[in-house]
Amino acid sequence: MPTSAPPKNRFERRRAETRQALVRAARQILAETGDTSASIQAIAERADVGFGSFYNHFESKTELFDAAVTDALDEFGQVIDERVQGIDDPAELVAAGFRLTARMAESHPELMRILRDRGLAYIHSARGLAPRALRDLENGIASGRFTCRNATTALSALGGTLLSLVALRLARPDLDGDEAASDLAEMVLRMLGVPPDDAHQVTRRPLPDLG
Q1: Which of 31, 44, 92, 187 could anchor a disulfide with 110, C-beta 3.0 to 4.6 Å?
Q2: Which tops the pLDDT comparison, 151 or 77?
Q3: What is the DSSP string of 22-49?
């Protein structure tokens, strides 16, 4: 789960723990069934908190499930960011994001199921991997690494392809996930304007372990 500044006193700590328990329960429901019709009572029981505690943190189930998705997106973005530290080439950053995401189908299945089912509505979100990807695209355009003109439009293409990769990995675990991710990343880099030979080479560089 994403981390933030620790609460200052016991009351704030307990309040933060209760909120996070509710978010965690909502994430589990989204990953298991995607069914947001679960009752508040059922969510509170899964979170092991009192029914009345729910309304101390959320006005509705919609607000809770939105918080659960953004929490998952933040964790997803943090996982990728931690693994690509030290990479400066925008093309390699895009490729690494694709390839690490494919591996997360096994290491972080809950996150990937939420991303598959809910990610489309958050491609241009201010949370999670989207702002990081937009930053890399803007840097790539500014440096001339990418020849596309509009980073926001490019993000739509990149995000849609990434979600398709997640769906493929979850639907076809028999496929070679690393190869599929490298192939798709290569296609995306070529679409962004990276020369074919360069795109192929970049998408086959060694990757760090997810750990």
Answers
A1: 31
A2: 151
A3: HHHHHHHHHHHT--TT--HHHHHHHHTS
Cα-to-chain-centroid distance, residue 25: 18
Residue with tokens 């969510």: 43
Residues whose CB is less than 8 angstroms from the CB of residue 41 and which lie 6 or more positions away in sequence, other chains included: 51
**Cα–Cα dist 72/108, whole Å:** 10
Find where tokens 């694709």 sit.
98
Distance (Å, whole) CA 111 – CA 73: 8
pLDDT digits (tens, 9 = 90+) for 97-118: 999 999 999 999 999 999 999 9
The answer to whether 114 and 69 have CB atoms below 8 angstroms apart is yes
In tens, the pLDDT along 67-81 reads: 999 999 889 988 888
CA dist 137 and 14 (Å) reads: 40
Q: What are the angstrom distances between the C-alpha of 33 and each of 66, 106, 200, 206? A: 16, 18, 38, 35
Structure tokens given for 83:
């693994």
pLDDT, position 3: 55
* 193: pLDDT strictly greater than 90: yes
